[in-house]
Amino acid sequence: MVEQNKVEEQVAPAPHAEHRIKSFVVRAGRMTEGQIRAIEELGPKYMVDVEDLKPLNIDEIFGRTGAPLVVEIGFGMGVSFVQMAKDAPECNFLGIEVHPPGVGSALKLIEENQLTNVKVIKYDAFEVLSKCLQPESVDILQIFFPDPWPKKRHVKRRLINDSFVDLVRPLFKHGGQFRMATDWEDYAIQMLEVMTRAQGFSNTAADGKYIPRPDWRPLTKFEARGQRLGHGVWDLVFKRD
């Protein structure tokens, strides 16, 4: 999950543009010795190499066939992402993140819980989505608390937009879910507008807007703090027709 105090791993809004505007910025951040060691020692076990940008064989990566695939973009420090994988061992979880401390932290959590259904990709999610994932391979795509880019001049960097939806639409299995959450109301409104006009998706909310906070999305310390301060959180789930 992408938390407000970390640099987010995300995709660009113009998937077919040669010079796209990236919606993430990787800043130099201090890594702990444990995070560095996790990437060095646990990387070969849990990380997927996509440097060649070839289509991935998901069954081969996870060592089993037929398991539903959950893809999360920008999992932050990995706490919620790993907990969801622990709670749903029947699913394969593939997390995409460019923030090195977050990757290291997630690897440590995966090892501590001895999970075999989680893999991590440290790479630009745009490239992974457009070149490495097969059509109709994703059961659930989730993006929680993406960078809101609150300044007006930066809104164009927001991840959820028409071009992004056009990029990911073919990746969903029919009946698959696109799960999103944000604590910025104007971004929630933008997400709802984008997804409502998107071809091939239906809103699962009874009122055609937002769903109640789902039990399957773990409550993070960041979100709990926001709740205590009275901050709102908006969840959306759209189903691929």
Question: Can you describe what's shown?
Answer:
The protein is of the alpha/beta class. The protein has a single domain, classed as 3-Layer(aba) Sandwich (Rossmann fold). Helix content is 32%, strand content 17%. It has a 7-stranded mixed sheet with strand order 3-2-1-4-5-7-6, sandwiched between helices. Strand 4, helix 6 and strand 5 form a beta-alpha-beta unit. Helix 1 packs across helix 4. The radius of gyration is 17 Å and the shape is globular. The two termini are 26 Å apart. The N terminus is likely disordered.
Task: Give short descriptive properties of this protein.
241 residues; alpha/beta; 7-stranded mixed beta sheet
Structural class: alpha/beta
Strand content: 15-25%
Q: What gyration radius follows from the Cα positions, in whole Å?
A: 17 Å
CATH architecture: 3-Layer(aba) Sandwich
Uncertain residue ranges: 1-19
Write down how many β-strands occur, each being a DSSP E stretch of 2 or more residues.
Answer: 7
The averaged pLDDT comes out at 90
The spatial strand order of the largest sheet comes to 3-2-1-4-5-7-6
How much helicity do the residues have?
25-40%
What coarse outline follows from CA principal-axis ratios? globular
Counting structural domains, the number is 1
The CATH homologous superfamily is called Vaccinia Virus protein VP39
CATH topology: Rossmann fold
H/E element sequence: HHEHEHEHEHEHEHE
**Alpha-carbon distance between the termini?**
26 Å
Sketch the major β-sheet. 7 strands, mixed
CATH top level? Alpha Beta
The number of distinct helices, counting runs of at least 4 residues, comes to 8
